[in-house]
Design brief:
There is one protein chain. By secondary structure, the chain is of the alpha/beta class. It has two domains: 88 residues, Elongation Factor Tu (Ef-tu), domain 3 (Beta Barrel), CATH 2.40.30.10; 158 residues, Rossmann fold (3-Layer(aba) Sandwich). 27% of the residues lie in helices and 32% in strands. It has eight helices and 16 strands. The strands form three sheets. A seven-stranded antiparallel β-sheet has the order 6-1-2-5-4-3-7. The protein has a seven-stranded mixed β-sheet with strand order 11-10-9-8-12-13-16, with helices on both faces. The protein has a two-stranded antiparallel ribbon with strand order 14-15. Helix 5 runs parallel beside helix 6. The longest helix has 14 residues.
């Protein structure tokens, strides 16, 4: 059992939890993830590490309430316990001094981008961050990302904050202006990562993406997270979750992410009915 020591509502659909998990906190690295099961009847699902504190023995997770399991997790409060908190899993982000690194976070993915951007900064890179969301209310980690960035940009689809447009609007403008960018790291919705990769590919800028595949066990046994990279089948849980964005078959990935939408919606509706709308 893993105790929730801090809970924070970041926006209407995204919540942060700091969980006491000393063994995990002691060894986890940016880019890795945790497999969570809220209770004995819950499903297992992955959440990428948003931060960790080795001295306190805590791991921070940030999640968007989109289905039954994340809604259930969101009902827990400080002092409550999560049944399973298994990790760290996956390969950590490869951190080195590249020169100029552009870290792109979309929506809830910005929480995952934060420890990666911080690690690149600590390695001596010049860090440009682009933080995007649909509206200003959905932007997260604004202060945190700005503090570790040499250049910081925000974008919103509706123009309510920062640049009116997408993260690729800013990224494309930087490239068009001839800015030397040695590496782009992107994490967020699959469609966002797809177009980040399309934006950088003509210039040959190395682009790493962190994939949010469906996972069941997180150890490569089930095969649910398989994705095609460079024409070869990979398992996001053990071969990733980070891959060369120019090699990922994003259409296949998005198709697999949508494969169980109907069942997910039914499960959520039943849960909401049992819990009075989930309130």
């Amino acid at each position: 059992m893993y105790k929730i020591v801090r809970k924070k509502v970041l926006n209407p659909v995204v919540k942060l939890m700091e969980v006491s998990a000393p063994d995990v906190a002691n060894v986890c690295q940016p880019g890795q993830f945790i497999m969570i099961r809220v209770n004995e009847t819950g499903e297992r699902f992955p959440l990428t590490v948003a931060d960790f504190d080795r001295e306190k023995g805590t791991v921070t997770i940030v999640f968007q309430e989109v289905g039954k399991s994340t809604r259930l997790l969101g009902t827990l409060n400080e002092g409550d316990y999560i049944l399973d908190f298994t990790g760290p899993l996956g390969r950590p982000t490869h951190i080195e001094k590249y020169g100029t690194v552009c870290v792109v976070g979309g929506g809830c993915g910005t929480a995952i981008a934060y420890p990666v951007a911080r690690a690149f900064k600590e390695a001596g890179n010049y860090v440009i961050t682009i933080n995007g969301a649909r509206t200003m209310d959905l932007l997260i980690y604004r202060k945190e990302m700005q503090e570790i960035s040499d250049e910081f940009y925000e974008t919103t689809d509706d123009g309510s904050c920062g640049v009116h447009g997408f993260v690729t609007t800013v990224l494309g403008d930087l490239i068009q202006k001839g800015r030397k960018i040695d590496l782009v790291f992107a994490v967020g919705p699959a469609i966002m990562m797809k177009f980040v990769a399309k934006t950088t590919e003509p210039s040959g800028i190395k682009t790493i993406v962190s994939l949010n595949s469906i996972m069941v066990d997180g150890t490569g046994m089930c095969g649910a997270c398989r994705v095609t990279v460079g024409g070869q089948m990979k398992f996001a849980c053990v071969d990733g979750p980070e891959f060369d964005g120019h090699q990922v078959d994003f259409n296949e990935l998005m198709g697999r992410l949508n494969a169980y939408r109907e069942q997910e919606q039914v499960a959520l509706e039943l849960w909401e009915k049992e819990h009075g709308g989930g309130k």
